[in-house]
């Protein structure tokens, strides 16, 4: 499940870029708690999918501001034992900004221009 928010009322991020906020929650069923079986709710898989969504928005950079992965202690193995010991539901949430075009006045852009001068 992915939701987006792009109406910042004309405001820019701290570096002067346009941004889209993306909040992604991945649900999956893992085999024996840790091995992805149906989907991939690992943090690695969620970040991979988050950055793919950011690319689809036209982002050049991302800033992840929050993530939450179910760990062994919080995995939902207790929902329907013994079935959930083998096929365990898991979820991971990643939220952040897809940063679009640079503003030419940003510090990073100024640093790039001074680095390229002889």
H/E element order: EEEHEHEH
SS class: alpha+beta
Helix fraction, binned, reads 10-25%
How much of the sequence lies in strands comes to 35-45%
Q: What's the pLDDT, averaged over the residues?
A: 80
**Low-pLDDT residue spans:** none
The N- and C-terminal alpha carbons lie at a distance of 49 Å
Roughly how many Å is the radius of gyration? Answer: 19 Å
Largest β-sheet summary: 5 strands, antiparallel
Principal-axes shape call? elongated
Q: Would you count the extended β strands for me?
A: 5
Q: Tally the helices: what do you get?
A: 3
* Integer count of domains: 1
Please give a structural write-up.
This protein is of the alpha+beta class. The protein has one domain. It has helices at about 45-55, 85, 105-115; strands at about 1-5, 20-30, 35-40, 60-70, 85-100. Strands 1, 2, 3, 4 and 5 form a 5-stranded antiparallel β-sheet that branches. The radius of gyration is 19 Å and the shape is elongated. The model has no long low-confidence stretch (mean pLDDT about 80).
